[in-house]
Design goal:
mainly alpha; 434 Repressor (Amino-terminal Domain); 5 helices
Length: about 70
């Protein structure tokens, strides 16, 4: 599986675990739900700032996103 899709799946799992909708996460990141959805679907890749913001919001580490143990 390609990395962008793997990260997207990790984001989706973490978001659901926190009880957030895509729309809620997108609003906190100052983007539309459609833009955020593209991250979860592996269409667009995240930049460093977005990774940091999502990790903080979802209370996960970059290692969780990249499946690094």
């Amino acid at each position: 599986m390609e990395l962008a899709k793997k990260i997207g799946e990790a984001l989706k799992e973490a978001r659901k675990a926190k009880g957030f909708t895509q729309k809620e996460v997108a609003a906190k990141l100052l983007m539309t739900q459609q833009q955020y959805s593209r991250f979860e679907n592996g269409v667009f890749e995240l930049n460093y700032h977005q990774i940091a913001a999502l990790c903080e919001l979802l209370e996960i580490t970059p290692n969780d996103l990249f499946d690094i143990t």
